Amino acid sequence: MRKRAAYAVLTAVAALAGFAVPGAYADETVGDIQVTGVAVNGGKNIVVDTADKTITVSVTATDPSGIWDADFYLWRGPDGSDPYYSPDGYILPNEDTTPADCVASSSTTSTCSKTFTFEPDWWLTNADAGTWKAGVQVWANDDSWTERWAYTTTRLQRHSKLTANASPEPIAKGRTLTITGKLTRANWDTLDYRGYANQPVKLQFRKAGTTTYTTIKTVNTSSTGSLTTTVPASEDGYWRWDFAGTSTTPAVKATGDFVDVQ
After folding, report:
1. Measured on CA atoms in the order 40, 46, 50, 51, is the torsion positive or negative?
2. Residues 94 and 76: beta-carbon distance below 8 Å
3. In this structure, what DSSP letter does residue 95 have?
4. How far apart are CA 121 and CA 126, in angstroms?
C-alpha cells in the first residue's frame, strides 16, 4: 500500500511549524570559506524505475581553518514552494539523517557527502520528474560558513524501456519486413511501466558484419507507446529502435533484432 498519506501529514506539519522555503532566503557566506564544487549522483541524471533509488550528493569546500561539517537539501519548483525540501530542522523521507561524511584531502579542504533515497512506493509521483535543485550548507572549524540554495541542478527521470522485433524471419529479398516495438517508462503513480505516447523514435539498421547503425526513418509512438512500420528487405542485418529521450525520460536503444535475408 502506498504511504503518500503519511507524507502529506509530514508536509502539513512542516507548514504549520513555519519552516522557510528556499525562495525566502538569499545565498550567504561568512568568513573565508569557499565551495569549489557540488556533485549530485556523480553528475549524472537520477533515473528511477519502480524501486527505491539512493544517490549521493557531495560538496568540496576549503577554508584556512579546515572544514567541519556540511548539509544538503534537494528541492524543486520555481521558488521552493512545493514540499520536496529539507531545511535544517526538518527531515524529508528521502534524506539521510546521519551526519555528513567528510573526508579531508588537506588541512584546508574536505569533501563531504550524504545520501538521498527516491521512493516510488512512498512519496515519489510522476509529476516529480524534471529539474531539481541542490542546496548546500558548509561550516568551517573557525565558525565560517556558507549557504547556497541552488548551487547546481540535477534531472530526475522515469526509467525507460524499448523493444524491437522484425518479422518475418527469415525473409526473401525484396519482400516487406515489418518492424514493431514499444516504448514504456516507469509510472511512479502505479508502480509499473506504461506506454510513452506520441514520441518520435528512430528506426535504425546495421548491416551484418559492421558496427554502425544508420537511421532509416522516424516513427511516432501510438497512444499506448507502440511502434510499427514496414521496409523492404534488402540484406542481412540488425533492426532496432532508438529513442533520444526527454527532460523527464532518459534515452534508450532497443536491442537489435537480426534478420536473415535470403
Report:
1. negative
2. no
3. B
4. 12
pLDDT digits (tens, 9 = 90+) for 113-143: 999 889 999 888 999 999 998 989 999 999 9
Burial tier of 94 (Cβ tally within 10 Å: 0-12, 13-18, 19+): buried
Asked if 157 and 47 touch (Cβ cutoff 8 Å), the reply is: yes
- E strands along 53-198, which residues? 53-62, 67-75, 101-104, 109-118, 130-140, 145-158, 160-167, 176-187, 192-195
Q: Distance between CA atoms of 204 and 198, rounded to whole angstroms?
A: 19
**CB of 157 within 8 A of CB of 180?**
no
pLDDT in tens, 165-212: 999 999 999 999 999 999 999 999 999 999 999 999 999 999 999 999
Contact (CB, 8 A) for 181 and 196: no
**Sign of the Cα pseudo-torsion (77, 21, 92, 97, in order):** positive
Beta partners for residue 155, in sequence order: 131
Across the beta sheet with 53-62, the strand order is 34-40, 53-62, 109-118, 101-104
CA 122 → CA 72, 119, 147, distances in Å?
A: 21, 5, 29
Mention every residue, 6+ apart, whose C-beta is less than 8 A from residue 142.
31, 63, 64, 65
pTM of the predicted protein model: 0.84
Give the three cell numbers for residue 94: 528521502
Amino acid at 231: V
